[in-house]
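Lecture 7 notes: from sequence to structure.
We start with the chain below.
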Amino acid sequence: MSGQERRAKKLVRINYLYEKFSTNKQIILVSLDNVSSRQIQSIRSLLRKTGGELIVGKNTITRKAISLRLSAPKEGEDSYEFRKSIYTPMPQLEKLLPLIKDRVALIFTDEPVAKLKEQIESETVAQRAKVGTISPCEVTIPKGPTGLDPSEISFFHALKISTKIFKQQIEITQDFTVLLEGQVVARSQAVLLEKLDKKPFFYGMNVVSVYDDGYVLSPDVFSMKPSDWAMKFREAVSNVASISLEVGYPTEASIAHSMTTGFKNIIALCMEVGYTFPKLEEMQSAGAKQAATKDAGVTEEAAPVVEEKEAEVDLGGGGMFGDESSSEDGSDSDE
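Predicted structure tokens for the same chain:
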């Protein structure tokens, strides 16, 4: 490809991004570290179903498109007529520039972040531990048979792994931690995991930041679920109501509490002076029925259980059960 062709292709990509900034106010930035092309295609297919789009490109091209979008097009510039036709001032895009670093891709979408984040990050693939990579998690080999020939025993001894020979194969006798989270993979560790046919790492796209019409959302915000937002909203309303009641300033959050308290005061006053009204009578009647039902239940539970005693029968046991003794023939004995 000639230099002119490369320049034309680069210009097409810049203009495409230039236009996308006008069509979508929300941009999700995802990390592409250790992500395969197959995973990228899978995420692209997923996003198409929701009307979103994943754009993978060089950071220099993305920054150039943002820079051009920050200022009005000038005559004599490349694609002046095209940019002029869709240009609107977007100074808020300047906050996006510091986020374009390392290996990131842009997802243009209007779908809720909480919904897409779970789907995007669930697309993971198991991979082997390569020398020089940083372990994203702790890797432990459980005790048990390895399937390796006893001739490999010296390799395990060199790594100070407790083993024994059982049924013509090497068996690890204790769990052995190969890697800690954040540790750089050494050659011996990579070879050990390779021999055991282990793929301990799972890689996929991770949402690193979210740009929303000039606002940059941090992970503790865009990771929240709808239930978390609902709880936060309830807490905020409760705080507003408490402050309003404390200072005596009515708001929509506190008016229900104020009306309930006022109604309770009216009921207490009416009962004190002996005044009644239909709603109070209805409440008193309902309360009386509830109390009667409760008392009836308690009475029923507390009712004593009457046990029927069997009548005592004189079995003629020869004085064993009576106060007086009798002879065998039933005559009284006189002494």
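Points to note: Residues 3-124+204-216 form a domain with the Alpha-Beta Plaits fold (CATH 3.30.70.1730). The radius of gyration is 41 Å.
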